[in-house]
Amino acid sequence: MTKIAIFASGSGSNAENIIKYFANNEDVNIQLIVSNKEDAYVHQRAKNLGVESVTYSRSDFYHTGKVLECLLQKGIDFIVLAGFLLKIPENLLRAYPDKIINIHPALLPKFGGKGMYGDNVHKAVVESGDAESGITIHYVNENYDEGAVIFQAKCPVSATDSYEDVAKKVHALEYTYFPVIIDKLLNKRRAESDDFGFE
Predict the structure, then answer these.
(1) pLDDT (tens digit, 9 = 90+) per residue, 171-191?
(2) Catalytic residue (one of 43, 63, 104, 122)
(3) What pTM, to 2 d.p., does this model score?
(4) Is residue 187 part of an annotated ligand binding site?
(5) Is 102 part of any known ligand binding site?
(6) Which Pfam families match (predicted)?
């Protein structure tokens, strides 16, 4: 059983989609929602779906070991960032090497980096005149949006599209692919572990 923690800072629509996808999966359990915002709607979604959620401040993340202690106590094996806006601190990166992934609402390396999240990204895509956008699922390292790419999916952007139009297309890709790619990634990890005789 792989126990997952989802980190989210806002509404949590991706988090809800992932929780529902794995609801009847015997190999994967969404154990915990972690947020840096007490009033984030993701907490209500978690409550509705019977998943525990907790809030830790920016200071908790960067200046204490509270978050890591919680993850270890809950037996968390894997971390999924779904609209989480803080940079992941070094102690979590060390504790979960290649076990933290993120989804970015554009085709990295374009439109990545600090401050490039949500509608900021979609506005930048429209302003650039690019003919396509999409999603990038990638491993997390010490820099924003620079970890190794796992998967990308594209959608067209027309000259008449508003940033809201682009956002709808990108969200559709997120909902379609993010849970599936998480599932495939975890299956691959389990298969590789089995090859070496590990549980």
Answers:
(1) 999 999 999 999 999 999 888
(2) 104
(3) 0.94
(4) no
(5) yes
(6) Formyl_trans_N
